[in-house]
Amino acid sequence: MSINQPGQITGIAMSGGVDSTATALILKEKYGAENLRGFFMRLAQPDFEQQLARVQEVAERVGIELHVIDLSAAFEENVVSYFADSYFSGRTPNPCVICNLKIKFGLFLDAMVAAGMDTVATGHYARLLHGTSCRLLMGVDQRKDQSYFLARLSQQQLGRVLFPLGEMAKDDIYDFVEAHGFTDFRGKESQDICFLENTSVSAFLEDRRNIAVSGAIVDTEGNELGRHAGVHRYTIGQRRGLGIASSAPLYVIALDMKKNEVIVGRDTDLLCSEIELTEIQWFNGEVPVEGEYLTKIRYTHRGAPARLTLEENNCGRLHFSEPQRAVTPGQFAVFYSEEEVIGSGVIQ
What we know:
The strands form 4 sheets. This protein has a 6-stranded antiparallel beta barrel with strand order 12-15-14-13-16-17. Strands 3-2-1-4-7 form a 5-stranded parallel beta sheet, with helices on both faces. A 4-stranded mixed beta sheet has the order 9-8-11-10, with no helix packed on it. α1 crosses α7 and α3 runs antiparallel to α4. The longest helix has 20 residues. It is an alpha/beta fold. Helices cover 27% and strands 29% of the residues.
């Protein structure tokens, strides 16, 4: 569909934070408040009422209508359950990727379209180029780029989406909203996992399942060095909280759910040059030639060159020229051609 046409109504995903507020202000200047509507998701936020009050205040000050969409049941089923199941199977989840896929650009986007929205805008730091197909690029502000979290989305999902902040830097966003009278945002970054307000991952998981089975912490030779209180409490690369006396630092290098063991080793044991992938998908639906791509193995990873080889059933392998640290099963590997997202896969 055509984007940015006169008379189109744009729905803005609002959270009460600086990014969605800036998005609303930018689009108000561009299209006028009469062509905008605000939408807020009810998910599993522990402080939902306070968040709603903030969003209502922002919408009122911007001068746009606000609608609340209750997606709490779907969020529990699709995101929270995935989060818990991953940890209890020895994998480290990325709930933001799944939330974007199934909730924000899934059910939430569908609800906005059903409410009459022609286009949908969010405060993500990424760029979209609309043409015969969508192209997803990193945001200009490399420190805040969120293209990694969007890599699993489909062409259909992004076909009517706008990312007004993709060309801007975070510091400029603060300056922009402050010039419009919103002066209380600095130093208030949102929490990564919205449903863990003031709660640790382990406490959240044990509250859901009340399971904490003790087992052995072993070295790479299988020697027991200590005891753990549940494999789900640990992640690859973890150093703190092991409770083991050692002459050199020890890190979690693997989790064995079948044996109920946490395997620890030296920092060098965390290095890996080859990664197995499943569920590989390509952003524009076309399988590119095998080759070398800049690859991120987690959101905070700067990216490194890797050669991708493809196998059957959407599986493949990444071969890094330089070993990568703390490769974590359950996370996503995202492939880039320079700044453009090409595809992604699940790390095994």
